[in-house]
Each structure stands twice: as C-alpha cells, then as structure tokens.
Design goal:
It is built from 6 helices and 4 strands. It has 195 residues and is α+β, with helices and mostly antiparallel strands. It has a domain of 106 residues: Alpha-Beta Plaits (2-Layer Sandwich). A hairpin with a 5-residue loop joins strand 2 and strand 3. Helix 3 crosses helix 5 and helix 3 crosses helix 6. The relative contact order is 0.16. About 20% of the residues have low confidence.
Length: 195
C-alpha cells in the first residue's frame, strides 16, 4: 500500500521549518517529561501529631452508624495510655479529655473533641503510634480497621494559646455615654389612633 497523495499535513511543514536547536529542545522536553509523568506519586508523609501551644484540640468526625466502633477505639487508646511506662505517654494521659458533641457535625457526622490541656511539648499525639506501642500486630490491625471504618477523614488539630488581658487596660469597660431621650413626634401614618 502506498501513501495517499494530496493529504495535507500542516504540522509536518511546521516541524520541518523549525531549526535543529528547536527540534532538539522539543524532543528533549518530551523524553525528559515522559518518565516524570509516568512515575506514580509517592503517598504524602504522615506528619506527627504534635502541639506547639500549651493547649490543643483534635476534632474527629465519625459516621453515626459507627459510633460504637469509634468509642471502642477510644477505650483501646485510654487503656494504652494507662498501661504505658513511657513518661511522655503518662503525661499525655493526664491532660487528655475526650468529649462527644451534642450537636451534629458536618454532613450529619458525630463530632468528637479531644481536649489536651496541658499538652506535652514535642509529644506525638498520633493514635497509630500510641496504639502500636501497646498492642501486637493482630490486635493493632483490628483496632485500626475499626478506626478507619468509623472516621470520615483525618482529624483536625488546633493549637490553643491562652489570651491574657493587655496591660494598661481599665479594670472595667467604660460606661457608654448617656443621652437624654428626645421627644420627637411620630409621623402621621405611625399613629395607631388615627383614622
């Protein structure tokens, strides 16, 4: 089979008209970018769950039908902290309180708030680390399955710094200025006795 004649190839004309340097740069760019595009991106590294302030909050949103599973995980967490011989873990346990919000969370989820007051500087509050130190691989896999099935995403961490009154401010707020009320006549259409 021969080539069809009379077929227009404007892209070929454009390529032929390019200088040798331009063609080289074009081909080099294609060959260099193909391997980079073909690579699978690495999963993001999990950051340590540490606090930089004296107090902190961790928010966890939980599927309503999986509340019991999440509360089992909390039980495992509390047990792990109680059993730990690590001084940092014991200190974390002292300031770690867990609450369930009465109001629904985003999308009808159940919101759990971990209040950490005081926080332990430099301590990792990641549940995975704490649980891995307390349970064997089989138990850990079961606990992690409960956790990942219950939560709707990663928890949100907030660092809290106490607010102190600024120096030099008065002890009580200044009273608002008082003005005597003025008697102004009501507009004619505002008088309820008018007929």
């Amino acid at each position: 089979m021969g080539r069809a004649t009379g077929v227009s190839r404007p892209w070929l004309f454009f390529f032929v008209e390019m200088s040798a340097v331009t063609r080289f740069v074009l081909f080099a760019g294609l060959f260099v970018s193909v391997p980079a595009a073909a690579q699978t991106p690495a999963p993001p590294a999990t950051a340590a769950r540490t606090f930089t302030a004296p107090a902190g909050l961790l928010f966890n949103t939980v599927r309503p039908e999986r509340v019991a599973d999440f509360e089992r995980v909390i039980g495992y967490l509390q047990s792990a902290l109680e059993k730990s011989t690590d001084a940092k873990d014991r200190a974390q346990a002292q300031g770690w309180r867990i609450f369930r919000a009465a109001e629904p969370g985003p999308g009808g989820s159940v919101l759990y708030v971990f209040l950490l007051d005081p926080t332990v500087p430099g301590a990792d509050y990641g549940l995975g680390r704490i649980l891995a130190e307390a349970y064997d691989a089989t138990q850990l896999q079961e606990i992690w399955k409960l956790y990942t099935g219950a939560v709707t995403g990663g928890g949100t961490l907030l660092n809290l710094t106490p607010v102190k009154p600024a120096t030099g401010t008065p002890a009580s707020p200044a009273a608002p200025p008082t003005t005597a009320p003025t008697d102004r006549p009501l507009p004619a259409d505002a008088d309820p006795n008018r007929r």
